[in-house]
Design brief:
Length: 566
């Protein structure tokens, strides 16, 4: 008896603070969300020492009167919900009523707020001072409409937690990320962030998301993004993703939003990365900013104290929709690399057919079976330069195609269809030839014999370190079957492409790279036309399987700028 007791309010507040306030960025996130919910059109955040010394968030929202201000620092005080059913589809950022009392319990806390319209002399306002969870003072002051919250000496009364704070630079970076996320949700609000008097973020109100992205992350990143617009059932996916050619292994940004609310979900990020299959090298991490729209009763936002996680009613469908949205965006010609600062050209407006003979690339039945999403002008002329690149005019400029990368994309999608189906026709050799291999290459042949047979290599042991090839693929007349076989086997033996999750995709990528026509091979006009027709019948024509572009666009505006005509 006597061992169970009700926690004191101060202790309960500190426990709540441990769930909500992890670091200065947590404080900034909660305060900025409150400002947005209050209808602010301008928000300023001022930090000292990355927020470890002081955080101040000021807005021009509706503010509070004295009674509401005093009540707001009590736990579970909220203006957002009244009954449990209000939690379904809640549209505001904040609704739990825990953030302000949690902050006040582990810091020196001040709140100034006024509800009356702005005037030149200032209006009557309320100022609260709280020290470690105890209300010390309630004053009348003067300020314009809105609210300012100052949080000083975070965790001053919880030294065990304060020691876990990182350096000022690290905490500052976390705050910048938190502010950037929220700034992406509300283009109609201006955001300004300073640390020790230095401006870190200055994002004025804009009408286009691309302009906000440029303000937050710079023009270089903004120009490397392509739009996403996709609908499936009641789920929509909008936003921007990075062109595969611009993606890097490090430094990526992965921002997710649902119904205007930022959240974290590594599985959805992984689903989005799945849309990049066979367009980037394993280990590359593309930037993505994706906003999901779902019915309010299909997502639960009340599963995390800091509202950083959500739960979807049909997670598998949402993940599949996100992957499909990314895949569709990458298949559009907007995803092709662009020279200069101009936006992507409307290559999808090209015509639908090209006359020509498919002599170089074999039977037309081997063209990928997907519906052509992009085509090119039937009247166009194609210039091969350096025996490597194909240059053509488009309605909005020039397009330059890498012949090896283009053929690699064609062969990859063709091979994947063959591996998923009944295999590819092969050419039997009148005079089979032998190939000498190293022991680990012989082992690779044995382990991957089924794949090799499916694409047309009929291989038997010959004795010792040799194998004999009785049949080979026939992707084009200049195909060097022996060299391709040796290179594919060497790739397997040395573990190349080992990061590919899908073994079929890995094999198809290896084979396509080795079997494709090479740079330096001269092509006839009809061969060029056939290659282009087959490329634009692919699902993802702008990219090869290594993350390099197959097509580089040179907009007419950029040409005119270079020649001084703009």
């Amino acid at each position: 008896m006597g061992r169970v007791a009700i926690l004191a309010d101060a202790v309960a507040d500190q426990i709540a603070a441990g769930e909500i306030v992890e670091r200065p960025a947590s404080v900034v996130k909660e305060l900025v969300e409150n400002a947005l919910d209050a209808g602010a059109s301008s928000i300023e955040i001022e930090l000292e020492a990355g927020g470890k010394t002081s955080i101040a968030v000021s807005d021009d929202g509706t503010g509070m009167d004295r009674d509401d201000a005093v009540l707001a620092i009590d736990r579970h005080a909220t203006s957002k919900i009244r009954v449990a059913s209000d939690l379904i589809g809640v549209a505001t950022f904040g609704f739990r009523g825990e953030a302000l009392p949690a902050m006040a319990s582990i810091a020196k806390f001040e709140l100034e707020t006024a509800t009356t319209p702005q005037n030149g002399d200032g209006s009557e306002a309320t100022r609260l001072v709280v020290d470690g969870g105890r209300l010390k003072d309630v004053q009348t002051t003067a300020r314009q409409r809105g609210t300012t919250v100052r949080v000083k000496r975070l965790f001053f009364n919880a030294p065990a937690r304060r020691k876990f704070l990182r350096t000022s630079a690290t905490e500052t970076r976390q705050v910048v990320t938190a502010v950037s996320l929220l700034a992406l949700t509300r283009l109609d609000v201006s955001f300004k962030l300073t640390n020790d008097g230095r401006v870190l973020t200055d994002a004025p109100r804009v009408s286009a998301l691309s302009d906000r992205i440029e303000a937050l992350f710079g023009r270089s990143l903004a120009e490397g993004l392509i739009p996403v617009e996709h609908h499936a059932g009641a789920v929509s996916v909008r936003g921007f993703i990075q062109r595969p050619a611009d993606a890097k292994p490090t430094g990526r940004k992965a921002f997710l939003f649902v119904n205007g609310r930022p959240f974290r979900d590594p599985f959805l990020v992984r689903a989005a990365e799945g849309g990049y299959r066979a367009t980037i090298h394993p280990g590359t991490r593309p930037t993505m900013l994706l906003s999901l729209g779902v019915p309010g009763d299909a997502v639960d936002v009340n599963v995390h104290p800091s509202k950083l996680e959500v739960r979807f009613r049909d997670r598998r469908f949402v993940e599949a929709t996100v992957e499909e949205a990314v895949r569709d965006a990458l298949g559009d010609m907007n995803a092709a690399a662009v020279v200069g600062p101009s936006g992507p050209m409307a290559v999808s407006a090209w015509g639908a057919d090209v006359a020509g003979n498919a002599s170089l690339f074999g039977d037309e039945q081997q063209v990928p079976t997907s519906e052509p999403g992009h085509a090119f002008s039937p009247d166009g002329e194609y210039l091969q330069v350096f025996s490597t690149y194909i240059v053509m005019q488009t309605p909005d400029g020039l397009a330059i195609v890498d012949q090896h990368s283009a053929h690699e994309r064609v062969l990859y999608e063709q091979t994947m269809a063959q591996l998923d189906g009944n295999g590819a026709p092969s050419q039997r050799l009148l005079l089979p030839f032998t190939v000498d291999l190293e022991p680990r290459e012989l082992e690779a042949v044995e382990q991957n014999r089924d794949f090799l047979n499916t694409i047309g290599f009929e291989v038997d042991e010959f004795g010792g370190r040799s194998v004999v090839l009785h049949a080979v693929p026939n992707p084009h007349p200049r195909f060097d079957a022996r060299r391709c076989f040796e290179e594919v086997v060497a790739d397997f033996a040395r573990g190349r492409f080992g990061g590919w999750a899908n073994q079929l995709e890995r094999f198809a990528a290896m084979y396509a790279c080795r079997a494709a026509i090479k740079a330096g091979q001269v092509l006839e006009q009809r061969e060029v036309a056939t290659l282009l027709r087959r490329l634009f019948a692919c699902q993802l024509p702008p990219h090869d399987v290594h993350g390099r572009p197959t097509i580089v666009q040179l907009p007419r505006e950029e040409l005119e700028r270079r020649f001084g005509r703009s």
